[in-house]
TrEMBL record:
InterPro entries referenced in this protein's UniProt entry, alphabetically: Epimerase_deHydtase, NAD(P)-bd_dom_sf
All copies of domain NAD-dependent epimerase/dehydratase, residue ranges: 3-268
Organism of this sequence: Sediminicola luteus
Recorded superkingdom: Bacteria
Keyword NAD applies: yes
Name the record gives this protein: NAD-dependent epimerase
């Protein structure tokens, strides 16, 4: 099986590539390596996969891994580049595709909406067209818990109405689900959308709370605590996310088609953690008390997320379960090692 992973230099994409390679799959990763956050972190992830920065910097160059040999190669390419994306599909003959490439961030979507239209909508249509014309057996793609928007009923279920997003990021992810449904219906392409819930762990994004809080506390800076700390999140550890993605991605296609050509799953820990408890876990691991700026709710944010994962359990006998203290501890150990603290 040859697998395309888009967003391979990203947080989830890197971990997924590493896990698939360790299990013997052949993987090709693509990423635009944009400057939304520190590119050094993205190149660092690629170096962990055996791809040197000097190689990966060149657009459209196929870079082989010094660590995994011909089992892994990387191409710097964005999904908006329709022609070169199609050429890659034609040349490589992928069996399945996992789309993790996207312009991320709820708050940034208020500042730069066009980036979300280009990457998350135009780019996703280009990918669907490639899957359509190159006989891809299964497209698995990242959606987001943000699609639940202002929903009040918890835990959030994939059967709930999600027609009220409160950020352009969420709207773009909802549009991915709608477009995938259309291609499944019209062209018989099996598609599976995965609504991730607050993913965290080593090599995490610098714009996420755990990274921001850890970095500020270590540097004796204050942290911004929104909604005056009255927030709850269904935090999901990166290894649990990858396990769920893998089970769905590499399932035999005949078995996949027995269920439905089009499917949506939540991948979350199926419980909530108060923001104040989350901060206490960081403080406890660091042995430092945080200086807190208590602020009102941010536009586009929600006060609570909580995943119903019954479908994931029923179809794949799987449910994430890493405790928050364990996950936070592993992240901080990585952070200290990466930044030589």
């Amino acid at each position: 099986m040859k697998i395309l992973v888009t967003g391979a230099a990203g947080f989830i994409g890197y971990h997924l590539c590493e896990s698939l390679l360790n299990k013997g799959f052949t993987v090709i990763g693509i990423d635009s390596i944009n400057d939304y956050y520190d590119q050094g972190l993205k190149f660092g992830r690629l170096q962990e996969l055996g791809v040197a920065k000097a190689e990966a910097e060149t657009p459209l160059k196929k870079c082989l891994s010094s660590k995994h040999g011909s089992k892994f190669s990387f191409v710097r390419l964005n999904l908006e580049d329709k022609e070169n994306l199609s050429n890659l599909f034609e040349k490589e003959k992928f069996n399945v595709v996992c789309n993790l490439a996207a312009q991320a961030g709820v708050r940034y979507s208020l500042e730069n909406p066009s980036a979300y239209v280009d990457s998350n909508i135009v780019g996703f249509v280009n990918l669907l067209e490639c899957c359509r014309h190159h006989q891809i057996e299964h497209l698995v793609y990242a959606s987001s818990s943000s699609v639940y928007g202002l929903n009040k009923k918890v835990p959030f279920s994939t059967n709930d109405n999600v027609d009220h997003p409160i950020s352009l990021y969420a709207a773009s992810k909802k549009s991915n689900e709608l477009m995938a449904h259309t291609y499944s219906h019209l062209f018989g392409i099996p598609t599976t959308g995965l609504r991730f819930f607050t993913v965290y762990g080593p090599w995490g994004r610098p714009d996420m709370a755990l990274f921001l809080f850890t970095d500020a506390i270590i540097k004796n800076k204050s942290i911004d605590v929104f909604n005056h700390g009255n927030m709850e999140r269904d935090f999901t550890y990166i290894d649990d996310i990858v396990e769920g993605v893998e089970r769905i991605l590499v399932e035999p296609i005949a078995k996949r088609k027995e269920r439905s050509l089009y499917k949506i799953y939540n991948i979350g820990n199926n419980n909530t953690v108060k923001l104040t408890d989350f901060i206490e876990s960081i403080e406890s691991k660091l042995g430092i008390t945080a200086q807190k700026n208590m602020l009102p709710m941010q536009p586009g944010d929600v006060s609570r997320t909580w995943a119903n994962v019954d479908d994931l359990i029923n179809d794949y006998n799987y449910s994430p379960n890493t405790p928050i203290k364990e996950g936070v501890s592993k992240f901080i150990d990585w952070y200290k090692g990466y930044y030589n603290i």
